[in-house]
Amino acid sequence: MDVFASLSKSDDVIVCVGMHTTGEPTRIVLRGIDHLLTGERLLDKRDSAKRDHDHLRKRIMFEPRGHSEMYGAILVRETELTRAGEAHIGVLFCHNEGYSTSEQIKYDSSRLVSFLSVPSFVTAADLLVQVPEEYRWLELCDRTSVVLNLAYGGAFYAILPAVELGFRNGLRGAALDRLSFAAAQLKALLMRHHPDLTHHPTEPSLSYLYGVVLTDNDCAAEETGLCFFANQYAIGARVALAFAKGHLKRNVPKRYHSIVSLSASQPEQDAFVGEVVEEVEVEGGEGIASKGVVVKTSGRAFYTETNTFIAEKDDHLSSSGFEVSLPRL
Fold first, then answer.
1. Where are the alpha helices (DSSP H) in 12-153?
2. At what angle do helices 42-52 and 54-61 cross, to 10 degrees?
3. CATH number for position 186
4. Residue 216 CB coordination number (10 Å)
5. Phi/psi zone of residue 230: left (φ > 0), alpha (ψ -120 to 50 degrees), beta?
6. How many domains does the chain have?
7. Residue 22, Cα to own-chain centre: how many angstroms?
8. Which domain holds residue 110?
9. CB 200 within 8 A of CB 152
10. Residue 263 — pLDDT band, cuts 50, 70, 90?
């Protein structure tokens, strides 16, 4: 009996391939979800996925098919830009907590992948933020504030050097769990006390802080960054910030390393590349967020696996996946 062939005939099959782009792994959904989504715009289909088909996201992100750090990309073949010939395909990015950004992508080949961001903009530059006692972390020592930046690049990110959080050597030699805790504390503080900094002028569903990016300019000639939340690489937001501060000019590519690409045998080939290709007015934006940029992000991509996911009829435990955690009191 050919079990694989038999299971693959199920109506509930979700077909995926695994890829990494400069070391960032992603589970890419080729078939099984796209045809279920309704709406004219990509953001409408994102709402449809969240509202009507979230069990499928959980199925491919959670245990036993995934894990807490899993990151996914659902390919959407028809969007407002694909119909207009301005994009090859749409993508809904997802993770263990839900859906993050959506992008419209043009690609050159399966090795060099590039996409143009939605308008990216800065909402706060060099902002002094007070850190109340309940949000403090050990490395902050006796300091009571940090200086950070807030920028949008498909999602909102807080961006600041690791040394600003009290890690004296930046990302070098720092314990990952300590960096993660400090970033989580900072994110909780910003979400609770500074929600105005992540207000999206036209899409209320995107008005939240997605992640914290810790940077380090001493690890390499290019800027190195570590993004805390679902491994999403925040190139659009970082390029928009560099441009707004006058550190980067239009049509000048800049390499951005992750801690993975930095340790590669040929790091100059495995970094992400960000480039401002257009300056735009942000619809509904005010103040510093009234002007933005369109960012071209590029990186080398390679296949790592193929997967066919199914859910058997009586498998109630894993049909929507599950998270491994202790019961709450």
1. 42-52, 54-61, 80-83
2. 80
3. 3.10.310.10
4. 22
5. left
6. 2
7. 14
8. 3-116+304-309
9. yes
10. low
**What secondary structure letter does DSSP report for 62?**
S
Same domain, 170 and 273: yes
Task: Say whether 124 sits in a helix, a strand or coil.
Answer: strand
Q: Do 18 and 162 belong together in one domain?
A: no
Work out the average pLDDT over 11-30. Answer: 88
Q: Is 57 inside a domain boundary?
A: yes
pTM: 0.78
322 domain residue, yes or no: no
Calculate the CA 234 to chain-centre distance: 6
Tell me whether residue 63 is in a domain: yes
Euclidean distance between CA atoms 212 and 180, whole angstroms: 9
State residue 232's pLDDT score: 44
Same domain as 210, residue 171? yes
Predicted confidence (pLDDT) per residue in 92-122, tens digit: 988 887 887 667 666 655 766 777 778 899 9
Residue 226: pLDDT band (50, 70, 90) is low
User: Using an 8 Å Cβ cutoff, are 237 and 151 in contact?
Assistant: yes
Q: Which residue type sits at 240?
A: A
Query: Helices (DSSP H) in the chain: which residue ranges?
Result: 3-7, 42-52, 54-61, 80-83, 176-193, 235-244, 259-262, 267-270
Tell me the per-residue pLDDT of 40-52, one tens digit each, with 9 for 90 and over.
Answer: 999 899 999 999 9
Domain assignment present for residue 21? The answer is yes
In terms of domains, do 101 and 162 share one?
no
Do 97 and 140 share a domain, yes or no? no
